[in-house]
Specification:
Radius of gyration: 22 Å
Order of helices and strands: HEHEHEHEEHEHHHEHHEHHHHHH
Distance between the termini: 63 Å
Strand content: 5-15%
Helix content: 40-55%
Shape: globular
CATH architecture of the largest domain: Alpha-Beta Complex
Structural class: alpha/beta
Largest sheet: 8 strands, mixed
């Protein structure tokens, strides 16, 4: 029995599409390599920050995580004029008691309690941050999430880099930790999404809102600039208030910058598959300006760049397979380079396995985006036992 010859037109189309996908992956790996070489990390050694610094920690249902952050804050060195404000945001667990116990009478700390749900047009996070910021009289304002962990010199280093950059907002990107296979598959996409698409050293010199990158887990503000743009009131309804406040600063002519925190700050943003799914469902609908068509376009590009090459590697022949292998290899390299940019060190075996599974990561992200769009359309968004209806 003889095999029917392949349709030359179909073969040419498949080869062309695979080469386009490989080109996308190669471009991503080139940008990731550039960022690995140029993205600045928080310095290990910094002079003491002599000016007053106030750290604000919004916390809702964080009884298990908050004590560890408080311990890290109490252990900070080089910040002699540190003040910490913690808001228990209508928690339904023992967040306030856990915070007071961890503070152990340290007079630099103050715990507040909010008993009410946010006003219409506000997300809980923005409302909590705004209330805390109203109490700040220091020139440097730092927001930290309860799941962040800090090395003893993290705040002094962040303050030094903030002043060196002379910006309105510095965003030290915390190293993302994973405690499950699902987290390892999805969480590195946060860093990869900018590290493989945007030359950060160029973006840091720009005031274009579209090139801003920020991570709300660790934000260092010039307090006067923060208030000049309205602070969190300017992004009251945003599910991605960190990115939107950076854009608002840039629209008003202020500079913002992203740096890698490296080993000085890390976080486990979500614990397990259920929390990860709920967390991404809460906000992912708003990606790409909340536009379904823009999201579909990004999905098509991701399919070309990160699904087609590995499929061609597995099922193609000859030139198609070779092109696919090149594209798949480039995607894996970009993923590893991005991870190394984030951590500031060598990649681990887990990082390598997750990078090899990059097509599955893209698939998981697409599914989460679709789920988030559905939940937003049907008004079923929830986070931490609170309806989320921006």
């Amino acid at each position: 029995m003889t095999r029917r010859p392949a349709d030359p037109n179909l073969h040419s189309a498949a080869l062309a599409l695979t080469r386009i996908g490989t080109g996308i992956a190669l471009l991503g790996s080139a940008i990731a390599l550039y960022n690995r070489a140029t993205v600045r990390r928080l310095p290990d050694i910094a002079a003491p920050a002599l000016e007053p610094i106030t750290v604000c920690v919004p916390a809702r249902n964080e009884a298990t995580r908050l004590p560890a952050l408080i311990a890290d804050l109490r252990a900070q060195v080089g910040v002699p004029r540190l003040r910490v404000l913690i808001l228990d945001d209508a928690s339904t667990d023992d967040t306030r008691a856990a915070a007071i116990g961890a503070i152990a009478g340290d007079e630099r700390f103050m715990v507040l309690r909010n008993e009410f749900e946010p006003d219409p047009g506000w997300t809980g996070k923005a409302a909590a941050c705004a209330r805390l910021a109203d109490l700040v009289d220091a020139p440097v304002l730092i927001f930290l999430d309860a799941d962040v962990r800090l090395a003893p010199k993290a705040l002094a280093s962040a303050a030094a880099e903030f002043h060196r950059r002379d910006v309105a907002l510095l965003s030290p990107w915390p190293r993302q930790r994973a405690g499950s296979a699902v987290e390892a598959l999805v969480q590195p996409l946060l860093c990869w999404s900018w590290a493989s698409t945007l030359p950060i050293s160029v973006a840091n010199r720009s005031t274009r809102p579209s090139t801003a990158v920020a991570c709300g887990q660790f934000l260092v503000f010039d307090t006067s600039a923060y208030r000049a743009v309205g602070g969190h009131r300017a992004v009251a309804a945003s599910p991605t208030e960190d990115l939107d406040i950076a854009r608002e600063l840039r629209r008003n002519g202020f500079h913002t910058a992203l740096v890698a925190a490296g080993h000085l700050a890390d976080t486990r943003m979500y614990c397990g598959a259920a929390e990860l799914e709920a967390g991404y469902t809460r906000w992912l609908w708003s990606a790409y300006g909340g536009s379904a068509s823009a999201g579909a376009t990004v999905g098509a590009i991701a399919t070309l760049g990160y699904w087609l090459p590995p499929l061609a590697t597995a099922a193609g022949r000859g030139a198609i397979r070779r092109a696919g292998l090149l594209g798949y290899s480039a995607a894996v390299a970009a993923r590893l380079l991005s991870r190394s940019t984030e951590t500031g060190g060598p990649v681990t075996a887990t990082d390598i396995l997750a990078a090899l599974a990059h097509p599955l990561s893209i698939g998981a992200y697409s599914a989460l985006w679709a789920r988030s769009r559905y939940a937003h359309r049907h008004g079923t968004l929830r986070w931490k036992n609170r309806s989320f209806t921006p």
